[in-house]
Design a protein that fits this description.
Length: about 350
């Protein structure tokens, strides 16, 4: 089948849709109509935009397409978590995780194929970096999700470093929160980062979404051994920047902390966390470590995770333990990887 070279409409802002209308000789109000069909009604093709004239639709179809594509594969966990595999516009693959939890349903979306950060504990980093997702690729993880209408929250905690693809992540969050788009509150969206300093400042200035920083160790050398990004973007500089912003209102600041046995789970680490984060309006999320093939790290025992949490909480740092979900289908934190899907389509298991 010939490759579709038409430009996708999915992922366009209202300003970009106005340009499309103008270039095709359509009335300016057509842009708002297209945005409504895209982001309110999630139409699968241009022909469904029924308040556009038949002539306008035929004209648009020559050069444009919606740009959505259904998941290529899914895996269901015993706990209800579902992992979806999406093919990207460049032929790569990314994984997306749907996490239902009572009245809440969270979607963990990806922003890159692979990742440049190469964190020691993360399977995505082991597959290397293949490319950034387009805005279309990012939003398609939501647009084509079978459970789309049940979503209450979105977290950019899937494959990739969001601040390493910040232009497209910001455009995606604009569409998710804009009146012409999905009209979500920024409080429903969290973007996670290892702390790329330039991207962090821009995100804080241009977005109202929640922020999560992957911390994992409060000591410089030890964090550098886990996360090479520490050597270029020290945690101390990240914290210094964060102190210049107000997190007492709508936006929430959190720190992710995967617990590794004898690596970052001692009282000394807890004390340094308290010192480092003192005065910041934030929370710490402790995360159980799930073994990664070829990585010699071990997870902290449950009783020690509880003790670590209690120590931080007792000393005034709001700390929670994140529930582990989807471990049996490799959908838990740090386990997403699609390197084996890059080679061939024949490995797909369950077509949707």
């Amino acid at each position: 089948m010939a490759e579709d070279v038409r430009t996708p409409l999915l992922g366009m802002t209202l300003a970009e849709l106005k340009t499309v209308a103008c270039q095709n000789g359509l009335p300016a109000y057509t842009a708002k109509q297209m945005a409504e069909w895209l982001y309110k009604h999630n139409v699968p093709d241009i022909d469904r935009m029924t308040n556009l004239s038949a002539k306008s639709r035929e004209q648009l179809k020559v050069s444009y397409t919606i740009g959505c594509s259904a998941p290529a594969e899914c895996q269901c966990s015993a706990d209800g978590t579902i992992k979806y595999l999406y093919r990207t516009s460049t032929g790569g693959y990314v994984e997306t995780v749907y996490i239902p939890d009572g009245e809440r349903a969270t979607l963990c979306v990806s922003s890159q194929v692979g990742c440049r950060m190469n964190c020691r504990f993360c399977m995505t980093g082991k597959q290397g970096f293949s490319g950034n997702l387009t805005v279309t690729d990012i939003l398609n993880q939501i647009y084509a999700l079978p459970e789309r209408d049940t979503l209450t929250n979105i977290v950019f905690m899937g494959q990739g470093e969001p601040f390493d693809n910040l232009d497209n992540v910001l455009r995606a969050t604009e569409i998710l929160t804009a009146d012409y788009g999905y009209a979500w509150s920024p409080k429903r969206i969290t973007v996670s980062s290892v702390g790329l300093k330039k991207g962090l400042k821009r995100f804080l200035d241009e977005s109202d979404c929640h922020l999560a920083i992957s911390l994992h160790n409060p000591f410089h050398e030890q964090r550098g051994n886990l996360m090479p990004a520490e050597n270029s973007f020290p945690l101390s500089e990240i914290i210094e920047l964060l102190r210049k912003y107000d997190f007492t209102h709508q936006r929430r600041l959190s720190f992710e902390y995967i617990m590794f046995k004898s690596i970052n789970d001692t009282t000394a680490h807890a004390k340094e966390l308290l010192r480092l984060l003192r005065g910041l309006n934030c929370r710490v999320n402790l995360i159980r470590f799930h073994p990664v093939p070829g990585v010699d790290l071990k997870g902290t025992e449950e009783k020690n995770i509880l003790s670590f949490r209690d120590y931080l909480t007792t000393h005034g740092l709001f700390t929670t333990i994140r529930a582990s979900r989807g471990q049996d289908i490799y959908a838990a934190c740090g386990l997403l990887s699609t390197a084996n899907k890059q080679e061939t389509d024949s490995s797909l298991i369950s077509k949707i």
